[in-house]
Design goal:
With 193 residues, the protein is mostly helical.
């Protein structure tokens, strides 16, 4: 008879997610994961199969949590434009932290995406989800009058998605605040006018 697990799989995945997010997949050692999660080597392998298995579970947890947060934020203000702007201002605020870690999807798109087809598909799914959420917000903005009806929702949703990921990369590389603020201002002006 198998022993019952004495740990919360979700909690372990969350702890591992933070390690992978901060260090990246390749630089994260098994020792890092065991220290962060409190698991034994055998528990990690019995539950997740491998470091990669734990990474994939952690990445999916990140993706789901971020999508919930994004969608909630895109509906948080009285009008859609203000919600979109507020979300991106929050992204910039996080970008200006002392040690910005960027977006886990973006980080892994750069690290693993070019040579790992499975991760590449997960990242493509994630980016599509971000785009779709932004397109829905733009459509809401057309209904509430905060975004002109003439705007192509898909095109602007794609531009905002690329802007979001670009801001994350630039933040991780510690780009100057003015560069990020100016880029966001231009993209938001294009959506509003």
């Amino acid at each position: 008879m198998a022993r019952p697990r004495e740990f919360d799989e979700q909690e372990v995945s969350l702890k591992a997610m933070h390690v992978f997010w901060d260090k990246g997949y390749e630089a994260t050692s098994l020792k890092d994961l065991l220290e962060a999660t409190g698991l034994s080597k055998s528990s990690l392998y019995d539950t997740f199969g491998s470091k990669r298995g734990l990474f994939l579970v952690s990445f999916e947890l990140f993706r789901q949590e971020r999508m919930r947060s994004l969608k909630a934020h895109l509906e948080s203000k009285a009008n859609a434009f203000d919600s979109i702007e507020s979300f991106f201002r929050l992204v910039l605020a996080h970008a200006h932290h002392e040690e910005p870690i960027g977006c886990m999807s973006c980080n892994e798109a750069i690290e693993l995406g070019p040579h790992d087809e499975e991760v590449q598909k997960l990242i493509a799914k994630d980016f599509q989800g971000i785009e779709d959420a932004l397109v829905a917000a733009i459509e809401r903005g057309k209904l509430d009058g905060s975004i002109p009806l003439s705007k192509d929702s898909r095109m602007h949703g794609r531009a905002l998605t690329v802007t979001y990921q670009g801001l994350q990369v630039m933040a991780r590389s510690r780009s100057v605040k003015e560069r990020l603020n100016d880029a966001l201002t231009v993209v938001l002006e294009a959506l509003k006018k």
